[in-house]
Design a protein that fits this description.
The complex is a heterodimer. By secondary structure, chain A is mostly beta strands. Chain A has four helices and 31 strands. Chain A folds into two domains: about 160 residues, Rossmann fold, CATH 3.40.50; about 260 residues, TolB, C-terminal domain (Neuraminidase), CATH 2.120.10. In chain A, a hairpin with a 6-residue loop joins strand 23 and strand 24. Chain A is globular. Chain B has a four-stranded mixed sheet. Chain B folds into two domains: about 45 residues; about 110 residues, 2-Layer Sandwich (60s Ribosomal Protein L30, Chain: A), CATH 3.30.1330. Classes of the chains: A mainly beta, B alpha+beta.
Chain lengths: ~450, ~190
């Protein structure tokens, strides 16, 4: 497998800069109530970070653009065009005393990110500060120390801090998305950051690899591959790069889903003649059969507490989403709209199940309450939209879509269907995204 | 769905026409114990029917000793592998046409008892990947069941689903999809 795909970062948060003068207030005040339906994106300015000398040339722009892109992706901010920052407000200085708040205010900003970067003994030292322009004070500040190639992660980390400070819940901008890249007749699994950057190849078998599934600790990816002839399940350790066979039973070994405790997986096997869903341990040994019928049962997705399973069954003659109570074995049909509903993905907060539904020959992304009480269509016939996967904060959904140019790419949107953005711009086609859990990498 | 079937049938009929036309122009092989007259559809591809591509030991194992026997086998094998059975969307029910084709496969497998077969199940691109892997498995299974019910030893048959991963037609229209919703048969010996 070659070199490891991930390494523990030597990135350290050196200092959490003093934030609020009144610490007690900071914990309680939430700037953005994202549950409000009439929420308006907050205007924020993210000018280039200052560079200490020429050794960090270009990094100031890069760091600012990563933060700005994350904030834009979140759907919570309107990032002001940096072209407007050429005036005197862009004067050097990152401390409150140095910043001309009135000028930023006049430029339309309610929040401001300032920072600087410099070479250090570890490679790179960055400092970021978030200011409340209206109140003219520091909200949160951080200093990161790490390797130069960790620059992007430092910026993602600070974007996480911005969300934590303003919404009460940390962002997940330093997570990754695994996906399948189809090119030159083979399919390989890749990882990317959530802005589509920092691409890493996981498999290189020149075969067909499918259905990447992150383990809950973010260390392993389970996936399907044909590289030994038939579709079997494998697990790769992303830190050591070692791969092991998970399930190699006769017939299908597909659609892996780690149980949230990481001790077992729900998978689809056809070893007994029909594609059914089984519970297997970390080594692929069958523990029990979970969902079985005379028809196809496939694509399990766990509820966050691990007590229930959303899955696809065709027992009525066409594929629909069902929910299984694992302890009692009781199953209930969830979807009644349309004749082809597949690829369920239970949200990390447990409040929604996303899936792909076919209507008039087109696949679209829907979300439905786990009790079926509410259903929303998020995409509307722009190409085929499949394989939804939730961000670990439950606010975004990545999916594959053919909406641009007919070739499938990985896209992302907010869970209300807004803020649709394309993530992959690669040759070939990209499908089957799976969003990682929050990882300390 | 009717439309789909009609188009498929028309497509199949046109295929037959083209093939029988080329058979007429290229050569006129007498029907060798043929199940149906279209046995002579085999187009002569140089090399494909050359008996030298299989070594003598394998021929002996297959129990085929004379040159005409061997040539006949290669032609029948080529046809066996080229003739897929087709399915309707999201279905693994065997259509009438598919049953006729499977009957011919049964004939072949009876005549050449040493031959083993892998049945591949395939789907069109419209469904979703994982469901299609399962659907492909069911399609292969439908063909498998038919062959076994017709007396073929299950030990000679194996199955694999490729879902939507290996389309033969890459267009994004019903004509292509219809060609991809298939079971394909591969011989090994």
């Amino acid at each position: 497998m070659g070199r490891p795909l991930a390494v523990w970062l030597t990135l350290a948060v050196l200092v959490a800069l003093m934030a609020w003068p009144h610490q007690g207030v900071a914990a309680e005040r939430v700037y953005i109530d994202i549950t409000q339906p009439n929420f308006v994106r907050l205007p924020i300015a993210v000018p280039d970070l200052q560079e200490a000398d020429s050794s960090t040339q270009g990094l100031g722009t890069l760091l600012a653009s990563v933060v700005a892109n994350d904030l834009d992706l979140s759907g919570l901010f309107r990032v002001l065009d940096p072209k407007g920052f050429l005036g005197p407000e862009a004067a050097p200085g990152v401390t409150a005393a140095e910043i001309r708040f009135d000028r930023w205010r006049r430029g339309g900003a309610e929040f401001l990110v300032r920072g600087r970067c410099a070479r250090s003994s570890t490679g790179l030292r960055t400092e970021f500060r978030l200011y409340d322009v209206v109140a003219q004070r520091l909200v949160v500040g951080k200093i990161y120390e790490g390797r130069r190639e960790d620059a992007r992660i430092m910026a993602h980390r600070f974007a996480n801090e911005i969300l934590a400070a303003l919404t009460g819940e940390a962002g997940m901008f330093d997570t990754q998305i695994a996906f399948v890249q189809a090119k030159d007749g083979s399919k390989e699994i890749f990882l990317m950051d959530i802005d589509g950057e920092n691409l890493k190849r996981v498999t290189g078998d020149g075969s067909t690899a499918l259905s990447p599934a992150w383990s809950p600790d973010g260390r392993q990816l389970a996936y399907v591959s044909y590289f030994e002839g038939t579709p079997r399940l494998y697990a790769v350790d992303l830190f050591s790069g070692t791969r092991r066979t998970l399930c190699a039973y006769a017939g299908l070994n597909i659609s892996p889903a780690w149980r949230p405790d990481g001790e077992a997986l729900a998978v689809t096997l056809s070893k007994d003649g029909n594609p059914d869903i089984y519970l297997v341990d970390r080594n692929g040994r069958v523990l029990q059969r979970l969902a079985a019928s005379w028809a196809i049962d496939v694509s399990p997705s766990w509820s966050p507490d691990g007590t229930r399973l959303a899955y696809v069954s065709a027992e009525t003659g066409n594929p629909q989403i069902y929910v299984l109570d694992v302890a009692t074995g009781k199953k209930e049909r969830l979807t009644y709209h349309g004749k082809y509903n597949t690829a369920p993905s239970w949200s990390p907060k447990g409040d929604w199940i996303a899936y792909s539904g076919m209507d008039k020959g087109r696949n679209n992304i829907y979300i439905i309450r786990p009790d079926g009480s509410e259903i929303r269509q998020l995409t509307h016939g722009e190409g085929d939209n499949e394989a939804p996967t939730w961000s670990p904060d439950g606010r975004m959904i990545a999916f594959s879509s053919t909406r641009q140019g007919g070739r499938s790419a990985v896209w992302v949107m907010l869970y209300n269907g807004e803020g649709v953005k394309r993530l992959t711009r690669l040759p070939g086609e990209q499908t089957l995204p799976d969003w990682s859990p929050r990882i300390r990498r | 769905m009717h439309k789909i079937v009609n188009r498929m049938l028309i497509g199949a009929a046109m295929g037959l026409l083209i093939l029988s036309f080329s058979a007429c122009t290229k050569k006129a092989v007498p029907v060798q114990g043929g199940v149906v007259p279209s046995e002579q559809m085999q187009t002569e591809a140089p090399g494909m029917t050359s008996t030298s591509r299989i070594d003598e030991a394998t021929w002996q194992a297959l129990g085929l000793r004379t040159e005409p026997e061997r040539r006949r086998f290669l032609q029948a094998m080529e046809r066996f592998e080229n003739e897929d059975i087709y399915f309707e969307f999201d279905s693994y029910v065997l259509l009438e046409e598919a049953r006729m084709i499977l009957d011919r496969k049964v004939e072949f497998l009876r005549r050449y008892p040493k031959v083993q077969v892998t049945i591949e199940g395939h789907c069109d691109e419209r469904g979703t990947s994982e469901y299609n892997l399962a659907l492909g498995e069911r399609r292969a299974n439908s063909a498998w069941q038919y062959l076994v019910d017709s007396g073929i030893d299950p030990a000679r048959l194996s199955m694999i689903s490729y879902g939507e991963e290996r389309p033969v037609a890459t267009g994004h229209d019903e004509a292509s999809w219809a060609k991809n919703r298939r079971a394909h048969f591969v011989i090994h010996f």
